[in-house]
Amino acid sequence: MPTFEQYFLMNTENVIHYVKSKIDSFQNAKHISCTEIGDGNLNYVYRVVNTETNESVIVKQAGTTARISDEFVLSTSRNKIETEALKLQHTLAPGLVPEIYLLDEIMSCCIMEDLSKLTIMRTALTNFETFPHFAEHITDFLVNTLLGTSDVVLNHKDKKELVRTFINPELCEISEDLVFTEPFHNNFNRNEVTPGNEQFVQKLLYSNEELHLEVAKLKFHFMNNTQSLVHGDLHTGSIFIDQNDTKVIDPEFAFFGPMGYDIGNIMANLIFAWARGRAYEHKEFTQWVENTLFDIMDLFETKFRAAWEEHATEVVAKNAEFKEHYIQNILKDTAGMAGLELARRIVGLAKVKDITTIEPIEKRLKAERLCLRVAVELILNPLEFQTGGQYIAALQNAQQEENQ
Ligand code: SR1
Ligand code: MG
User: Is residue 201 within 8 Å of residue 193, measured between CB atoms?
Assistant: First the structure.
């Protein structure tokens, strides 16, 4: 039996032994089941259950390459960044992040709370399920984790220590390539444009010089603004949810970057759900998504303003005009980053099921064009997206353009 003193990629049998050796209450368990449940692009996720007591835990281990493609050779130390981010986010946003039981830097894995009574939000959204508390919960997560790790609140030396802890060059490089470069230049020839939309993509993304300039600005902003500890991959596949609870998982892309990256990712991924709802003419669902888009922008700003008043420690943060300037910039970044996420999930390597499972193909092509139209609008005119209502108007405009 392996002793887990040297890294190797575990199988389900190894994971059972691993949990027995690391978690006291599993030590003498006779009947343990272990299933690999990961459906992400990078890591291996196991659910381990003591079938006599029903006690369960999740083991997440990083491999040496990404699951989605061997082209991505990655250091397994990313699991440490992910686990440290989860621990910090758990402190800042209690109830909205799973509890970590163990971080193992040798095996590049962690053991955490089992959330599988909840559903991955993207899966639920593809079935047109709606969640009344989502806007409230996700804006608590965003405000608490983003403002709480910024220079507005933290002692600046402490914050710089955190910036050092969360330097994440490999995972940032993936985003720099897949989000900020390839969707517009196809420079590694990895894009996958759905047949039928090639000309549209050529004109709107590949040949659009005005767009390329704004994307370049956003890329350098992403790389050079250590504003807050961002989750870094906050899409609906990184969220567990049910009618009462919301839990944010999978922050392996965490690093100190612009707050708008996380908020924009949430907005964009809800827009994918909206586009799917429109494709299937699911009125009740699309109305809920619109309300949620509206509420997220509204609640984020309201809560952020209140938290700033309550928690700001930085002297210059008392300046009311500086506060306005800071918030306007977050909202501007949010729009630009939402546009990038919309574009890259349509033409890039890593797609989203909300769109790829739309049938027949004509409806999918239309939904893709709709998302790309909104993407370009958000990237070119980010200052015009300060409220949820403005996002909804952009969706409706794009829909009208599609229908012409
Ligand atoms: C190689 S990883 C591809 C994508 O999956 C992750 O969830 C991130 O979104 C990344 O861009
Ligand atoms: Mg992930």
Answer: yes
Q: Would you state the pLDDT for residue 1?
A: 78
Query: With 0-12 CB in 10 A as exposed, 13-18 as middle and 19+ as buried, what is 225?
Result: middle
Contacts of 302 (CB under 8 A, 6+ apart): none
Q: How far is CA 62 from CA 104, 252, 309, in A?
A: 11, 10, 40
Q: Tokens in use for 86?
A: 């989860």
Task: Identify the CA nearest to 159 among candidates 171, 167, 151.
Answer: 151
Range 4-9, long-range pairs (CB < 8 A, 24+ positions): 4/104, 4/106, 4/107, 5/106, 6/106, 7/76, 7/106, 7/107, 7/108, 8/107, 9/44, 9/61, 9/63, 9/64
- Ligand 1 atom, smallest distance to 42 CA: 2
Classified as helix, coil or strand, 270 is helix
Q: Is the pLDDT of residue 404 over 90?
A: no
What residue owns the CA closest to ligand 1's atom 7? 41
Give me the mean pLDDT over the 286-304 stretch.
Answer: 98
DSSP assigned state of 255: E
The binding-site residues of ligand 1, defined as CB within 6 angstroms of any ligand atom, are: 40-42, 66, 68, 72, 174-175, 178, 233, 350
CB 211 within 8 Å of CB 376? yes
Q: Whose CA is nearest to atom 11 of ligand 1?
A: 175
* Ligand 1 mean position, distance from CA 79 (Å): 15
Q: 273 with 282: CB under 8 angstroms? A: no
Nearby residues for ligand 2 (ion, Cβ within 5 Å)? 40, 250
pLDDT digits (tens, 9 = 90+) for 113-155: 999 899 999 999 999 999 999 999 999 999 999 999 999 999 9
- Return the best residue to mutate from 70, 233, 255 for the ligand 1 pocket (most ligand atoms within 8 A of CB): 233
